[in-house]
Design goal:
single chain; 275 residues; 5-stranded antiparallel β-sheet; 19% strand
């Protein structure tokens, strides 16, 4: 399963979340941004990778604690590109969603204006149809009075009646179109609202995760498991293990913190804290 990752500039330099990136034998990774520099700490296929980049260029690399010389960086090009590709795709998708929501809103506005124009045109056509029908009736009445012009008047009346029917059908068609345009405008408006709501949910989830980690660190200090925030280097918490700075904690503490901070039976939390 592939999980989208949203990296906030507000979190850079303090706390970094460890989340699955690929389902294919990837354990976890940490990514830290600082201006144009990026730091990646990840584990895959049983190897631990620590990589520092300037833009998309590797400046430092360690594999299982061994410093890799620059002459061998090219061996890891495919691995680094795969790691960065998912982050770039997530950022690009977020931007596409924002632009699509804006397009939907603009289209809804256009459809609403068009629906109003069609409604007005339908009213005009209805008035014209009524006028044509009245005229046809006058022509028929005049034909009755003027027997010498009866034939001519009758033909004229027939023409007017046919035109009135055409106008009525046209008015009906315009009215139906106006209703379709109104319904489409409503669908576009609702879609725009859904897109905005989803964007709000994504933002709130990211903020909730940040607050959860802050709350956990505060409780660690309160429970005397951590001297201070600056003393924190790493945390591992799952349904079997609880360790702080590489030191395994008692089972009671593991149960307490797992019950409070893990979201599910198979979930886990891994945190690397930068000084």
């Amino acid at each position: 399963m592939k999980i989208k990752i949203f990296v906030s500039a507000l979190l850079a330099g303090s706390m970094f979340l460890s989340l699955p990136l690929w389902a294919q034998k990837t354990d976890s990774h940490t990514i830290r941004y600082n201006s144009d520099d990026s730091y990646i700490n990840t584990k895959e296929d049983g190897h631990v990778y620590k990589i520092r980049l300037k833009g998309n260029t590797v400046t430092e690399m360690e594999v299982d604690g061994k410093i890799i010389p620059a002459s061998e960086y090219s061996k890891y090009d495919a691995f680094i590109k795969k790691l960065l590709k998912q982050l770039e795709e997530d950022r690009r998708q977020a931007e596409l969603d924002r632009k699509q929501a804006e397009k939907d809103r603009e289209q809804a506005d256009k459809d609403r204006v068009q629906a109003e124009l069609d409604r007005r045109q339908a009213d005009k056509d209805r008035i014209q149809a009524e006028a044509d029908r009245t005229e046809a009736e006058k022509d028929i009445a005049q034909a009755e009075k003027d027997r010498t012009q009866a034939a001519l008047d009758r033909r004229q009346a027939d023409k007017d009646r046919i035109q009135a029917e055409k106008d009525r059908l046209q008015a009906e068609g315009d009215r139906n179109q106006a209703e379709k345009d109104r319904a489409q405008a409503e669908l576009d408006r609702k879609q725009a609202e859904k897109d905005r709501a989803q964007a709000d949910i994504d933002r709130k989830n990211a903020e909730a995760d940040r607050k959860l980690y802050e709350e956990m660190i505060a409780e660690l200090i309160s429970d005397k498991l951590l001297e201070s925030r600056s003393a924190l280097t790493s945390i591992v918490l799952d349904n079997k293990e609880f360790s702080i700075n590489g030191v395994k904690q008692p089972g009671a503490m593991q149960e307490k913190y797992a019950a409070k901070y893990l979201k599910g039976k198979n979930s886990s939390m891994r945190m690397n804290h930068s000084q």
